[in-house]
Write a structure and sequence with these properties.
Layout (H helix, E strand, L loop, with lengths): L2 H7 L3 E3 L9 E2 L9 E4 L16 E4 L9 E4 L3 H12 L8 E2 L4 E2 L4 E2 L4 E2 L4 E2 L4 E2 L4 E2 L4 E2 L4 E2 L4 E2 L4 E2 L4 E2 L4 E2 L4 E4 L4 E4 L2 E4 L5 E4 L4 E2 L4 E3 L5 E4 L4 E2 L4 E2 L4 E2 L4 E2 L4 E2 L4 E2 L4 E2 L4 E2 L4 E2 L3 E3 L4 E2 L7 E3 L8 H12 L1 H8 L1
Parallel strand pairs: 2-3, 3-4, 4-5, 6-9, 7-10, 8-11, 9-12, 10-13, 11-14, 12-15, 13-16, 14-17, 15-18, 16-19, 17-22, 18-23, 19-24, 22-25, 23-26, 24-27, 25-28, 26-29, 27-30, 28-31, 29-32, 30-33, 31-34, 32-35, 33-36, 35-37
Antiparallel strand pairs: 1-5, 20-21
Family: Belongs to the transferase hexapeptide repeat family. LpxD subfamily.
Catalytic activity: a UDP-3-O-[(3R)-3-hydroxyacyl]-alpha-D-glucosamine + a (3R)-hydroxyacyl-[ACP] = a UDP-2-N,3-O-bis[(3R)-3-hydroxyacyl]-alpha-D-glucosamine + holo-[ACP] + H(+)
GO molecular function: N-acyltransferase activity; UDP-3-O-[(3R)-3-hydroxyacyl]-glucosamine N-acyltransferase activity
């Protein structure tokens, strides 16, 4: 795609433009080569415009002392991401129902559906139009999947699950397995039967190897627009609000409620029955043990320090009570 066309698509203004060159790829600013386009999103990175070998860059404001073609747009980073979609379109998958797939006669499939090899679709499943089910996926009874969804290989979706439109679920994820619930009787752990369901609303993306447990009685809910990273655990009866981001290895215990537009960074742990309000950010490795009812940034993770220093800190931590008594 040529520079003039790219500028037209993004309503950008060309700076230092001399020749309408062909753009054949995208790249980071330092890895770029001739034919690539990149971007600079922050003023502190302007110096990189002089070092890059890219043919052109997206910028918010012209960099006057950089001798490179610049496309001036309101948001260089977003323009760059959208150009990736244009230059690298998804591979077209034509509708088909593989002969090796096992599809119940009681299932209802929409138009232009792709069902890959060795998929199993149980009774009373409903799948919407233009949805893609990749090979080796299992879909349990009474599950409903909306339009334009993509279910990648080896996803397991247990019975009674409800999935909205334009949902993406990556490989290895398990949706609506039993919640982790037991009661004590005669000194033994007895399983609590979970008869609820999982509801995943529109435009949710679920990463690889995510587990979302079914509710015990009601619903585990992932609301619209939420994005869940790989290796995340969501327990029974949890509710996750709209447009929330859960980064890798987040764990949310049963019956907790996460608000809208929240970010839980990597390895955040949330105890059971916790409520987190809207617009909250929890920093990595933090543990949430009580309700957060005010928007803001919260965190309790410990940064890595030299081991020898940490051992000294531990020495004094273990002696705090003794030192406190001496101080009195």
């Amino acid at each position: 795609m040529r520079l003039l066309k790219i500028a037209e698509i993004f309503n950008g203004k060309l700076y230092n433009f001399k020749e309408d060159k062909e753009i054949t790829g995208v790249s980071s600013i330092l890895s770029a080569k001739e034919g690539d386009i990149s971007f600079i999103s922050e003023p502190k990175l302007k110096a990189l415009a002089k070092k890059t070998k890219a043919t052109a860059i997206f910028v918010k404001e012209p960099i006057e002392d950089a001798d490179i073609v610049q496309i001036v747009v309101e948001n260089p980073q977003v323009a760059f991401y959208k150009l990736i979609d244009i230059l690298y379109p998804e591979e077209e998958i034509k509708p088909r129902k593989a002969k090796t797939a096992k599809i119940s006669k009681k299932a209802k499939l929409g138009e232009n559906v792709y069902i890959g090899d060795y998929v199993v679709i149980e009774d009373n499943v409903e799948i919407g139009n233009n949805t893609i089910i990749h090979p080796f996926t299992y879909i349990g009874k009474n599950t409903k999947i909306g339009n334009d969804c993509i279910i990648y290989p080896r996803v397991t979706i247990y019975k009674d699950t409800i999935i909205g439109n334009r949902v993406i679920i990556h490989s290895g994820s398990v949706i609506a397995s039993d919640g982790f619930g037991y009661y004590q009787e005669d000194g033994k752990h007895k399983k609590i039967k979970h008869i609820g369901k999982v509801v995943i609303e529109d435009d949710v993306e679920i990463g690889a190897n995510v587990t979302i447990d079914r509710a015990m009685l009601d619903e585990t809910i992932i609301k619209k627009g939420t994005k869940i990273d790989n290796l995340t655990m969501i327990a029974h009866n949890v509710q996750v609000g709209e447009n929330t981001i859960l980064v890798s290895q987040v764990g949310i215990a049963g019956s907790s409620k996460i608000g809208n537009n929240c970010i839980l960074a990597g390895q955040v742990g949330v105890a059971d029955h916790i409520k987190i309000t809207d617009n909250v950010i929890i920093t990595a490795k933090s543990g949430v043990g009580k309700d957060i009812l005010k928007a803001g940034v919260y965190g309790s993770g410990i940064n890595a320090i030299e081991w020898s220093r940490w051992k000294k800190i531990l020495f004094y931590l273990y002696r705090l009570n003794e030192l406190f008594k001496k101080g009195r």
